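User: Show me a protein chain along with its predicted structure.
Assistant: Here is one chain, sequence first, then structure tokens.
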Amino acid sequence: MKRSILFDTETTGFDPDMGDRIIEIAALELIDDLPTGEAYHVLIHPERDIPAEATKVHGFRIEDLEGKPVFSEVADGFLEFIGDSPMIAHNARFDFKFVNAELKACGREPLDYASRAIDTVEMARKKYPGLPASLDALCRRFGIDLSQRGTHNALLDCKLLAEVYVELMGGRQRGLGLAGPSRSRSMTDGINALANRKPRKMAPPTAEELQAHEAFVSTIKDAVWLRE
């Protein structure tokens, strides 16, 4: 069985080198690319303020995190949950950079990006060149329900990304064929939840996606013309 961890973070800003910190981590365990039901989720006090611009994205104010642990208090639990498994994230460089900054700050070894990271943005761009690769765009493409997604939320985003990842890896039927009697109850529940979903119909492309595709095709044509 192949174990991997799908994870997401919410932060106070865009750059840990400028003092931004993690305020939420969510992670889901996958076995053979399907969720088992095992999850890790924690809210973290960033030991600094949360800018209003960041609050608009994820909805957290510093008052919401009063009394929550700081990263150094949750680091060991997070590392125990992820083990040495590959780490899947949407725009993985962003999340790895923040996690590694936090790990270094509390004296832990950073995660090795080259050997562990799986970036679903890169996967989507290879599979659908020229089309938007945001989580929202991929959910619409695969017919995944976005009704609960208002502000960004690491746990909800992980659940949505788990469904997107299954589709990027070849669809749920591929994963269901991997199930066997030795799976844990949580794995079985995860498979049954996926199996009971109605087959998805691919959503028609949005105007944004069509415009991006036309721009991509135009770029290719220009490149061919220049070679001629």
